[in-house]
Specification:
Blueprint: E1 9-16, E2 19-27, E3 31-35, H1 46-52, E4 57-61, H2 80-93, E5 99-104, H3 106-117, E6 122-128, H4 138-172, H5 183-190, H6 193-200, H7 203-206, E7 218-224, H8 229-241, E8 246-249, H9 255-258, H10 260-267
Parallel strand pairs: 3-4, 3-5, 5-6, 6-7, 7-8
Antiparallel strand pairs: 1-2, 2-4
């Protein structure tokens, strides 16, 4: 198979850490786990996973509570640590540990915590636009969040919570927004709008304060070429704290969704593939 050839996926459910997780596996080769950020599900990586399945066995999943992974009874809060424990359990349950792990945005924080606290299941980690906002100057973060809030409020006014979430994701997608994305995928993601606002954004992200000095596995930090100021600053902070170089991947925050082939071409060398 050549890069870009569609690879069929097998799907299933597995119960780990008190949660049922929907997951998909495709391809062959070294294990690669892709962790989605706040606002998507495994579907945001469909195109990227198909590209990478020519050199890896790719595992994607809906994180707890998102889309096809049901919310556990009484579950009202989460943390990066809980999410990382879920990912570790998933890798063990599917027999795919140790794996190379990729995560973007809050998924990057989960990948980082997985590498710090569960190094036995991680071969190497690549984090793209990691949301390490807790370490940035508070005034800067507040100003950036104010801009994001204004975007979401305009969306709320037009379409309620789903409108607010959609407006922000559209902003993260770059110049052309989410116009090229399958409407069914967008509809599925927006159905999680209450989870987006009430459980994950911003409490889960801002509560996490990683200690990258404890890493025992290789870490690569990357940001988007068209990164927003807060995401660029967060990636730069982590690269400095982890004493590693900062890689630049073309496109905006959601480039893996908008241009999976181009993103895969830039990502492959960072995963140790030619």
């Amino acid at each position: 198979m050549t890069p870009g050839t569609s690879a069929p996926a097998t799907d299933g459910m597995v119960k780990v850490n008190g949660a049922e997780l929907y997951h998909e596996i495709r391809g062959s080769g070294p294990s690669l786990l892709l962790i989605h950020g706040t606002g998507g599900d495994a579907g945001c990586y469909d195109g990227l996973a198909e590209q990478l399945a020519t050199g890896f066995t790719v595992l994607t999943y809906d994180r707890r509570g998102w889309s096809r992974s049901p919310r556990p009874a009484g579950w009202e809060r989460t943390s990066i640590e809980e999410q990382a424990d879920d990912a570790a359990g998933l890798l063990r349950a599917t027999g795919m540990a140790p794996a190379i792990v990729f995560g973007s945005s809050s998924g990057g924080l989960i990948a980082l915590d997985l590498a710090v606290r569960h190094p036995d299941v991680v071969q190497a980690a690549v984090v793209h636009e990691p949301s390490t906002f807790a370490f940035l100057p508070p005034d800067f973060v507040q100003a950036q969040f104010a801009e994001a809030t204004a975007i979401m409020e305009r969306g709320f006014a037009a379409g309620g919570p789903q409108g607010g979430m959609g407006a922000f994701l559209n902003e993260l997608a770059g110049h052309d927004g989410l116009g090229s994305v399958d409407p069914k995928l967008r509809e599925r993601w927006l159905a999680n709008s209450d989870l987006y606002f009430a459980i994950e954004f911003p409490h889960m992200i801002l509560a996490y304060r990683p200690n990258p000095s404890g890493l025992t596995v290789a870490l690569t930090v990357a940001r988007a070429e068209e990164s927003q100021p807060i995401n660029a600053a967060a990636a730069e902070w982590l690269a400095t704290a982890a004493k590693t170089t900062l890689e630049i991947i073309p496109g905006a925050h959601l480039a893996y969704l908008i241009d999976p082939a181009g993103f895969a071409a830039a990502l492959r060398p960072l995963l140790g593939a030619s």
